[in-house]
Amino acid sequence: MVQPTHGAASPRELIAAHGGRVTRTRVAVIETLQASSHPLSHDELGHALDDAAIPHDRVTLYRALEWLVEQGIARRIAGSDRAWRFEMLRADGHRHAHFHCDRCGQVVCLESLQPAFAVALPEGYRLDRAELVLHGACAACGREPEPPLHDDNE
Predict the structure, then answer these.
(1) Residue 12's CB: how many other CB atoms inside 10 A?
(2) Which strands sit side by side in the sheet containing 40-41, from one edge to the other?
(3) Structure pTM?
(4) What is the DSSP letter of 144?
(5) For the segment 25-66, what is each residue's pLDDT rounded down to a tens digit?
(6) DSSP label at residue 151
(7) Given a cut of 50, is residue 4 above it in pLDDT?
(8) Computed from CA positions of residues 59, 60, 63, 69, in that sequence, does the dihedral angle turn out positive or negative?
Protein backbone atom coordinates (compact mmCIF):
# COMPACT_ATOMS: atom_id res chain seq x y z
CA MET A 1 0.00 0.00 0.00
CA VAL A 2 1.22 3.47 -0.84
CA GLN A 3 1.79 5.67 2.20
CA PRO A 4 0.13 9.09 2.24
CA THR A 5 2.29 12.00 1.22
CA HIS A 6 2.17 15.51 2.62
CA GLY A 7 -0.73 14.82 4.96
CA ALA A 8 -4.16 14.60 3.44
CA ALA A 9 -3.61 17.49 1.03
CA SER A 10 -5.09 17.06 -2.41
CA PRO A 11 -2.74 17.58 -5.37
CA ARG A 12 -4.32 20.99 -5.99
CA GLU A 13 -3.84 22.04 -2.36
CA LEU A 14 -0.28 20.73 -2.37
CA ILE A 15 0.67 22.72 -5.48
CA ALA A 16 -1.02 25.89 -4.22
CA ALA A 17 0.66 25.55 -0.80
CA HIS A 18 4.03 25.64 -2.58
CA GLY A 19 3.07 28.74 -4.55
CA GLY A 20 2.81 26.94 -7.87
CA ARG A 21 0.38 27.19 -10.74
CA VAL A 22 -2.20 24.43 -10.53
CA THR A 23 -1.96 22.80 -13.95
CA ARG A 24 -3.54 19.66 -15.33
CA THR A 25 -0.12 18.04 -15.81
CA ARG A 26 1.11 18.78 -12.27
CA VAL A 27 -2.11 17.46 -10.74
CA ALA A 28 -2.02 14.32 -12.91
CA VAL A 29 1.65 13.66 -12.13
CA ILE A 30 1.05 13.93 -8.37
CA GLU A 31 -2.00 11.66 -8.59
CA THR A 32 -0.04 9.11 -10.63
CA LEU A 33 2.96 9.15 -8.29
CA GLN A 34 0.70 8.87 -5.23
CA ALA A 35 -1.06 5.85 -6.73
CA SER A 36 2.14 4.05 -7.71
CA SER A 37 3.76 1.43 -5.50
CA HIS A 38 7.19 2.14 -7.02
CA PRO A 39 9.15 5.06 -8.48
CA LEU A 40 8.26 5.88 -12.09
CA SER A 41 10.40 7.06 -14.98
CA HIS A 42 9.48 9.98 -17.22
CA ASP A 43 8.40 7.51 -19.91
CA GLU A 44 6.26 5.49 -17.48
CA LEU A 45 4.57 8.69 -16.30
CA GLY A 46 4.00 9.74 -19.91
CA HIS A 47 2.35 6.40 -20.70
CA ALA A 48 0.17 6.69 -17.59
CA LEU A 49 -0.98 10.16 -18.65
CA ASP A 50 -1.64 8.85 -22.17
CA ASP A 51 -3.70 5.97 -20.73
CA ALA A 52 -5.71 8.49 -18.69
CA ALA A 53 -6.23 10.62 -21.83
CA ILE A 54 -4.52 13.61 -20.19
CA PRO A 55 -2.94 15.84 -22.85
CA HIS A 56 0.72 16.63 -22.23
CA ASP A 57 4.05 16.87 -23.97
CA ARG A 58 7.48 15.61 -22.93
CA VAL A 59 8.87 19.04 -22.05
CA THR A 60 5.88 19.97 -19.90
CA LEU A 61 6.16 16.65 -18.09
CA TYR A 62 9.89 17.22 -17.46
CA ARG A 63 9.17 20.71 -16.14
CA ALA A 64 6.41 19.43 -13.86
CA LEU A 65 8.71 16.77 -12.43
CA GLU A 66 11.57 19.23 -11.92
CA TRP A 67 9.23 21.65 -10.14
CA LEU A 68 7.93 18.90 -7.84
CA VAL A 69 11.51 17.92 -6.97
CA GLU A 70 12.60 21.55 -6.41
CA GLN A 71 9.64 22.08 -4.07
CA GLY A 72 10.40 18.95 -2.04
CA ILE A 73 7.13 17.32 -3.04
CA ALA A 74 8.80 14.50 -4.97
CA ARG A 75 12.29 13.13 -5.26
CA ARG A 76 14.22 11.58 -8.08
CA ILE A 77 16.24 8.41 -7.89
CA ALA A 78 19.11 7.65 -10.25
CA GLY A 79 18.85 4.41 -12.17
CA SER A 80 21.82 2.52 -13.57
CA ASP A 81 20.05 2.74 -16.93
CA ARG A 82 20.57 6.53 -16.84
CA ALA A 83 16.87 7.17 -16.40
CA TRP A 84 15.62 9.10 -13.39
CA ARG A 85 12.73 7.58 -11.45
CA PHE A 86 10.38 9.77 -9.42
CA GLU A 87 8.36 9.20 -6.26
CA MET A 88 6.43 11.34 -3.82
CA LEU A 89 8.12 12.37 -0.60
CA ARG A 90 6.20 11.54 2.53
CA ALA A 91 5.14 14.31 4.90
CA ASP A 92 6.63 12.43 7.87
CA GLY A 93 10.10 12.59 6.29
CA HIS A 94 10.32 8.80 5.91
CA ARG A 95 13.23 7.75 3.69
CA HIS A 96 13.81 4.26 2.39
CA ALA A 97 16.12 2.33 0.12
CA HIS A 98 15.36 1.06 -3.38
CA PHE A 99 16.20 -2.09 -5.32
CA HIS A 100 17.06 -1.68 -9.01
CA CYS A 101 16.96 -4.69 -11.33
CA ASP A 102 19.93 -4.24 -13.63
CA ARG A 103 18.35 -6.45 -16.28
CA CYS A 104 14.82 -5.13 -16.76
CA GLY A 105 15.18 -1.73 -15.05
CA GLN A 106 12.40 -2.27 -12.50
CA VAL A 107 12.79 -0.23 -9.30
CA VAL A 108 11.02 -1.24 -6.11
CA CYS A 109 10.80 0.49 -2.75
CA LEU A 110 12.30 -1.25 0.26
CA GLU A 111 10.13 0.46 2.88
CA SER A 112 11.58 -1.47 5.81
CA LEU A 113 15.17 -0.52 4.96
CA GLN A 114 15.72 3.02 6.20
CA PRO A 115 19.27 4.10 5.47
CA ALA A 116 21.21 5.88 8.17
CA PHE A 117 24.40 7.61 7.10
CA ALA A 118 27.18 8.59 9.46
CA VAL A 119 29.55 10.53 7.27
CA ALA A 120 32.60 12.53 8.27
CA LEU A 121 32.86 15.15 5.55
CA PRO A 122 35.85 17.45 5.08
CA GLU A 123 35.55 20.78 6.85
CA GLY A 124 33.21 23.16 5.05
CA TYR A 125 31.36 20.42 3.17
CA ARG A 126 27.62 19.96 3.57
CA LEU A 127 25.59 16.84 2.78
CA ASP A 128 22.28 17.75 1.13
CA ARG A 129 20.96 14.29 0.39
CA ALA A 130 21.97 10.65 0.24
CA GLU A 131 20.23 7.67 -1.26
CA LEU A 132 20.72 3.95 -1.05
CA VAL A 133 20.00 1.89 -4.16
CA LEU A 134 20.68 -1.84 -4.14
CA HIS A 135 21.39 -3.46 -7.51
CA GLY A 136 20.80 -7.00 -8.71
CA ALA A 137 18.13 -9.06 -10.47
CA CYS A 138 14.41 -9.10 -9.67
CA ALA A 139 12.58 -12.40 -9.10
CA ALA A 140 11.64 -12.76 -12.77
CA CYS A 141 15.08 -11.86 -14.15
CA GLY A 142 16.92 -13.87 -11.49
CA ARG A 143 15.47 -17.10 -12.89
CA GLU A 144 16.84 -16.39 -16.38
CA PRO A 145 20.44 -17.15 -17.39
CA GLU A 146 22.80 -14.23 -17.89
CA PRO A 147 22.63 -12.91 -21.46
CA PRO A 148 25.77 -13.61 -23.52
CA LEU A 149 28.39 -10.91 -23.95
CA HIS A 150 28.92 -9.56 -27.46
CA ASP A 151 32.10 -8.36 -29.08
CA ASP A 152 32.52 -4.60 -29.17
CA ASN A 153 32.48 -4.70 -32.98
CA GLU A 154 28.96 -6.11 -33.14
Answers:
(1) 12
(2) 40-41, 84-88, 74-78
(3) 0.68
(4) S
(5) 999 999 999 998 888 999 999 999 999 999 999 999 999 999
(6) -
(7) no
(8) negative
